[in-house]
Design brief:
mainly beta, nine-stranded antiparallel beta sheet, eight-stranded antiparallel beta sheet, globular, binds 6-O-phosphono-beta-D-tagatofuranose, Gal_mutarotase_sf_dom
Length: 300
């Protein structure tokens, strides 16, 4: 049996023969749903998420490029909105590729890769004015029974160098934030954006637990290939391995969620944790014609 792919003018969805599924909005190339074979949703999406293309989606996996947050002291990206334009641009579906593997008993498709593209040619005038560089992005979403892989290829199509930040802003669904712990961040330094003033501190040797508003940028000591694991009640729910993305952002708005207009229900912060893979410390520089690639594998 084959993967079932449906493509409308606003979304692309795929269902594996084993039942796993993924749905991606062309708006922002935002993954809005990822379900396991049992049909359980792995991502958190706000009940007030706007998905009509008028604002960034609150939940799923929005894409952050070419700037993480805002960078007032970085001239080239200082005029961009928070998290840049990738999550609020309409991407193009470039196509799919499926792969069979001997391990599936009836030789059915065991994974599907969906490719999406964005370039300066498709940018709004406003975004082009704010960031006037020639670029090409190819974003690949690969669904298999073991997990979800998201990779980004960034190319400088211009004549001069520019630099960027990239992050995949994953809202992971969990049942009870008070039972969650994150491992793999031990003894790494992190920037604590909730502390005032913002401070750089060292993570405790044990797992990280979320006990209040949390907004931290970690640089895991083990490097990208050391897995970060999100467990709940002692049971591993997700593992994240990165490629060329050295930072991990951990965010939970806690009770401040009630002041985020499109975050619903207000106590939904108890059912989500953002563990975001990115290259957000400093800037990745691309010379004219150069290409950069980075990605993550979220295992379940
Ligand atoms: O997840 C890290 C973060 O930068 C937080 O500081 C918070 O602002 C979050 O992103 C959400 O940002 P958004 O622009 O989507 O409201």
């Amino acid at each position: 049996p084959q993967v079932n792919i449906t493509h409308s003018n606003s979304t692309v969805s795929a269902v594996l023969p084993t039942g796993e599924s993924v749905e991606i909005l062309l708006y922002g190339a935002t993954i809005t749903s990822w379900k396991d074979a049992a049909g359980d949703e792995k991502l958190w999406l706000s009940e007030k998420a706007v998905t009509d293309g008028t604002k960034a989606v609150r939940g799923g996996i929005p894409l952050v490029f070419p700037v993480f947050g805002t960078a007032p002291d970085h001239e080239a990206t200082s005029k961009l909105p928070q998290h840049g334009f990738a999550r609020t641009s309409t991407w193009e579906f470039l196509g799919k590729s499926t792969s069979e593997s001997s391990e599936t008993k009836d030789g059915g498709d065991s994974s599907v890769k969906l490719d999406f593209g964005l370039s300066d040619a498709e940018l709004s005038e406003e975004s082009k004015k704010a960031w006037p560089y020639s670029f090409g992005l190819i974003y690949s979403v690969t669904l298999s029974k073991d997990g979800l892989t998201t990779t980004m290829l960034v190319r400088n199509e211009g004549e001069t160098s520019w630099d960027f930040q990239l992050l995949m802003h994953s809202y992971l669904r969990i049942s009870d934030i008070s039972a969650v712990s994150v491992t793999g961040l031990e003894s790494s330094s992190y920037v604590d954006k909730v502390a005032s003033p913002i401070s750089t501190t060292t993570s405790p040797d044990g797992p990280v637990k979320i006990t209040g508003k949390t907004d931290r940028v970690y640089t895991p000591a083990g490097g990208p290939s050391a897995p970060v694991a999100i467990s709940e009640g002692g049971k591993k729910k997700f593992s994240i391995v990165r490629d060329n993305l050295n930072e991990v952002v951990v965010w939970n708005p806690w009770v401040d969620a009630k002041s985020i207009g499109d975050f619903a229900p207000a106590d939904g912060y108890k059912q989500m944790i953002c563990v975001e893979s990115g290259a957000v410390k400093g800037w990745q520089k691309l010379e004219a014609g150069e290409t950069w690639e980075g990605g993550q594998i979220i295992g379940v």
